[in-house]
Amino acid sequence: MEIVDRLTQISPSATLASAEKAARLVAQGLDVIDLGQGLPDFSTPKNICNAGITAISEGHTRYTANSGLPELRDAIAERYGTLYGVEYDRSETIITCGGKHALYSAFQALVEDGDEVIIPTPYWVSFPAQVRIAGGQPVFVGTREEDDFIVNAQDIDDACSEKTKAIILNTPSNPSGAVIPSSVLKDIGRIAIDRDLVIVVDETYDQFLYEGATHSSPLGLGSEAKPVTLSIGSCSKTWAMTGWRIGWATGPRKLIGSMSRLQSHLTSNPTSISQWAAVEALTGDQSAVADMLAAFSERREVVLKQLRSMPGVTCGQPMGSFYAFPNVSGTFNNRITTSDDLATYLIDEAQVVTVPGSAFGRDGFLRVSFAVEINRLQEALHRISEALSAIVV
Ligand SMILES: Cc1ncc(COP(=O)(O)O)c(C=O)c1O
C-alpha cells in the first residue's frame, strides 16, 4: 500500500504529541507538570453544560442544517457586526468542528496545487500542515523578537508572488502571544485588496488580552476589507470547550458557500448538542470568561517574572493568548544545542513538559503555557530554574 506524498510529509501535531508524552509519563507514576498544553485548565461553564443537557433532553439529537444552526450562525454574524461595524448575515458564516476544521476547509477552498500561502513565524503548528494538505506551499515570513514578534506589513508584501493566494494571521498569537496592532492589520488589508488575496485571520484567543491590549482585525478598514477577510473563531479556548468541537468562519459568501459544500460531504454538520451549547456560550452570561482572564493575568505575571530570573533565558511581553515564548538559546551548550534537546532535558531532569520552538518554526525558544493551576505552575517554574542552573555556567 502506498500512502499519498501529501500525507506522508505531514508529521503529527507537535503540541498534541507533547500532551500524549505527558500523559504517558503520568501513567508511569511520575509527578509530571505539563506546561505544553494548549487548553484552559477550567471546566466548561455550568450554563453552557446545561444548555447541552437541555438539547439532549429536548431531543435536539438529529442532523442540523449543513452550515450550522441558524441561531448560532446569526449569533456569530451579529458578533462581527457589533465588533467591526461590518454587516454579516447568516449566509456569510459557517459553523465547523472546531476552528481547526474551519481552517482546513478554507485552505481546501482557496489553494490549488503549487499556490503559495504566507505564514508569519513563529506559527501555530497546524497552519503549514493544512496548507500542504491542500497542495499549497507555505511561504514563511520571519518576525523579530525585538518587535515582540509582530509581523511587518512590508515583509509580507515582499514575500508575495504571482502564486500567492492567501495570508494567515493569528492574533493574539499561539505561540508568541503577539497582538497585531490595528495599523499593521489595516496595512496588510490594503496589500490583500491590491493583490486580490484572502487574509485568513485566526482569532481563537481574541478574548485573552493583557495590560489593556486590544484585539483588532483587517475589518478595521471597514466594508472594503470584507471581500478579502475570512475570520476564524472557536469556542474551544474562550469558553473552555475544547472537547465540544465548535468553531466557525465568517467571510465572503462565495468562500463560505464552498466550505459548506465541502462540509456537506465530510461531517454533514458539527454535533447538534455542542451547537446548542455554543449558542449559550455566545449569547449567555460571560462572567466565566472574565474569571478565566483574571486567573491567566495573575499567572502570566508569575511566569514572566520567574522566566526572566532564570539563567540563560530572556522573555518578551506576550500581550495575548496564554503562552510565554522565552528565548532559551542562552542555555545551550555542547550537549544541548536545540530547543528540542532542552525540552527533552527538562522532561528528564525536571519532569516538566514544554513545547520546543522548532514546532512553531523558531528554534531557540520554548512555548510555556500558563493555563495551569498557579501552585503547579510555580512548582514547574522552580524545577525548570533548578534544572537550568545545572547547565548554565
Ligand atoms: C491558533 C489556533 N487556532 C486554532 C486552534 C484550533 O482550535 P479548535 O479546533 O479546538 O477550535 C488552536 C488550538 O490550539 C489554536 O491554537
Write a concise synopsis of the structure shown.
With 393 residues, this protein is an alpha/beta fold.
Give an overview in words.
The chain folds into two domains: 5-44 and 287-388, Aspartate Aminotransferase, domain 1; 61-283, Aspartate Aminotransferase, domain 2, CATH 3.40.640.10. The model has no long low-confidence stretch (mean pLDDT 95). α5 (99-110) packs across α9. It has helices at residues 5-8, 14-27, 46-57, 70-84, 99-110, 126-133, 153-159, 182-195, 253-266, 272-283, 287-308, 339-350, 374-389, and strands spanning 33-34, 93-96, 116-121, 137-142, 164-170, 198-202, 229-234, 247-250, 323-324, 352-353, 355-356, 366-369. The strands form three sheets. Strands 2-8-7-6-5-3-4 form a seven-stranded mixed β-sheet, sandwiched between helices. Strands 9-12-11 form a three-stranded antiparallel β-sheet. Strands 1-10 form a two-stranded parallel sheet. Helix content is 41%, strand content 13%. By secondary structure, it is α/β, with parallel strands linked by helices. It binds pyridoxal-5'-phosphate. Residues 38, 98-100, 124, 170, 174, 202, 204, 234, 236, 242, 247 line the site of pyridoxal-5'-phosphate (PLP).
